[in-house]
Design brief:
This protein is an alpha/beta fold. Helix content is 36%, strand content 19%. An eight-stranded parallel β-barrel has the order 1-2-3-4-5-6-7-8, surrounded by six helices. It starts with a strand and ends with a helix.
Length: 222
């Protein structure tokens, strides 16, 4: 089953509450919370995303999919655990050692939250293989993280295919999430490669009818 995690990054200021309600009615599966600190990536959305996530927690029962693009991962985990997300995903590149990765996995799971690990386009997918049995989501960035509205990097499809083959061969239960440049032109390629959670922001929130886009993104590939 393909699920959609709608990024709230490009929602117009002042229209948050109305847009959140429309997205819920359109049956998005998750709200994707893009948390950036201005250091790990250039843009800083930290306080805005914390505010929006807190708002969502008050008005919606849909799960929150928190994607941390930050240097200080542990502090950000503590901040966002307060809104009881369904998933917290952190970047492998933000960690200084394998021990730190394992400690963060354990810490998030101990706080009754699913764990994801994300990799940037230039990071080899093989670098997360050893962690896959201990996490719930592997997030493949299909653009350089840091801003919305980018074009999907086509060579990331092979990275997703490689990951999918490894997961199937080793019988690992895990979701593959793809994030960046996913729209009505690219979603079929991403799903065929093996992703089962699609992050999409601009393509959905700039559409006249959210449900039409979300339904099409969710369509199974035959």
């Amino acid at each position: 089953m393909v699920e959609v995690s709608t990024s709230i990054l490009s929602i117009k200021p002042g229209e948050e509450a109305e847009t959140f309600l429309k997205l819920e009615n359109a049956k998005t599966d998750y709200f994707h919370i893009d948390v950036m600190d201005g250091r790990f990536v250039e843009k800083d959305t930290y306080e805005k995303m914390l505010e929006n996530a807190s708002h969502l927690k008050r008005i919606s029962n849909l799960p929150l999919d928190v994607h941390l693009m930050v240097e200080d991962v542990k502090d950000a985990i503590d901040d966002f655990l307060a809104i009881e997300p369904n998933i917290i995903t952190f970047h492998l590149e933000a960690c200084k050692s394998k021990d730190e990765v394992y400690e963060l996995i354990k810490y998030i799971k101990h706080n009754n939250c699913k764990v994801g690990i994300s990799v940037k386009p230039k990071t080899k997918i093989e670098e997360i293989y050893e962690f896959l049995p201990y996490i719930h989501v592997a997030l493949v960035m299909t653009v350089e993280p840091g801003k919305g509205g980018q074009t999907l990097l086509s060579d990331m499809l092979e990275k997703i295919r490689t990951l999918k083959k490894y997961i199937d061969k080793n019988n690992i239960e895990i979701d593959i999430e793809a994030d960046g440049g996913i729209n009505l032109r690219t979603h079929e390629q991403v799903k065929k490669a093996g992703a089962n959670i699609l992050v999409s922001g601009t393509a959905i929130v700039q559409a006249k009818d959210f449900k039409d886009i979300i339904d099409e993104l969710k369509e199974e590939i035959i």
